[in-house]
Write a structure and sequence with these properties.
By secondary structure, the protein is α+β, with helices and mostly antiparallel strands. The chain has four helices and eight strands. A hairpin with a 4-residue loop joins β7 (about 270-280) and β8 (about 285-290). The termini are far apart.
Length: about 300
């Protein structure tokens, strides 16, 4: 009887030990044992080995047969909120505004470049027009100067008079000239350096009577001087002696104011200045153009 009971208990004990070893090997897997019925199994100790209850973190108070379950709750990620229709419309509108602004900026830059190019073209055209106007004005002035009358003064021997000379104004221009005023003066000086820096006149210019009109190529005598006039010019015998000894010289100078025949009355007059040196010799005399540059001008 006892042997039968031992034969039944041996396999059960073997299964219990195998389960305990398996639980120890797996760590967290609980060990299970099937209790034989008291009628068929003798009183056999089923206490698990001490090694099965020494290190079990689920039983802090000591050995336990069943591991306490641990529950870990993981918070799931929140689901994305739905995109409302109003926000979609606002986003699309903002995007459209940005694109429109970008296109507007591009158009504005292109327009500014065109305006800059047109400004440069306008400046170039204006400069060219100004240069053309200046050239046209210069051409008109040149033509006016070319077509205007020009009076030149020269000295010539008087026909039929011994040691007599005439100062003649001739029109070398292309249009008729009208003489407006005449002025002349006679001085005695040692040389040209003794003359005033600018011509000085003791009287006012006078208008010729009758008026003098000179066609192109014509001339008129505006002053005459003869050998007999030397004593009348000298203020004393000493001065006359100095002239005869060439210690002093007689200078005749003057100016002629004239204008074109077709010029208006208020138009500025042209002017020609002249200066001559009378050479008084003992037997012969002469009259030549001389004097400082300020005494021979043309305007």
């Amino acid at each position: 009887m006892i042997s039968k009971r031992l034969g039944v208990a041996a396999p059960l004990l073997f299964l219990l030990l195998a389960a305990t070893v398996s639980a120890a090997q797996t760590g967290n897997r609980p060990s299970t044992a099937v209790a034989p019925s008291p009628a068929t199994v003798p009183a056999v100790s089923t206490t698990p080995p001490a090694s099965t209850s020494l290190t079990n973190p689920a039983c802090p108070g000591g050995a336990c047969d069943f591991q306490q379950p641990r529950i870990t709750i993981a918070t799931p990620a929140p689901a994305p909120a739905p995109w409302p229709l109003q926000e979609r419309i606002a986003w699309a509108a903002n995007l459209l505004l940005v694109v429109t602004a970008y296109v507007g900026v591009l158009i504005a830059l292109a327009a500014l470049r065109k305006i800059e190019r047109q400004s440069r073209y306008a400046e170039t055209t204006a400069q060219a027009a100004a240069d053309s106007a200046k050239a046209a004005l210069l051409l008109a002035e040149t033509q006016a100067q070319t077509l205007r009358p020009w009076l030149l003064v020269s000295a010539f021997p008087a026909p039929g008079l011994l040691d007599g000379f005439n100062i003649v104004a001739a029109n070398r221009g292309r249009t008729p000239a009208r003489i407006l005023a005449l002025a002349d003066e006679t001085v005695i000086a040692k040389d040209e350096s003794q003359l005033p820096a600018e011509p000085a006149y003791r009287g006012e210019p006078h208008s010729p009577q009758p008026p003098i009109l000179l066609l192109p190529g014509e001339s008129v005598t505006i002053r005459g001087f003869r050998r007999e006039d030397v004593k009348a010019v000298c203020e004393s015998e000493e001065q006359f002696r100095r002239v005869e000894e060439w210690e002093a010289k007689i200078y005749l100078y003057g100016k002629v104011a004239y204008a074109a025949l077709t010029a208006p009355e208020d138009a500025p007059a042209c002017e020609t200045s002249w200066c001559c040196w009378y050479i008084h010799g003992r037997q012969k005399s002469g009259l030549v153009l001389a004097g400082p540059r300020s005494y021979s001008r043309h305007s």
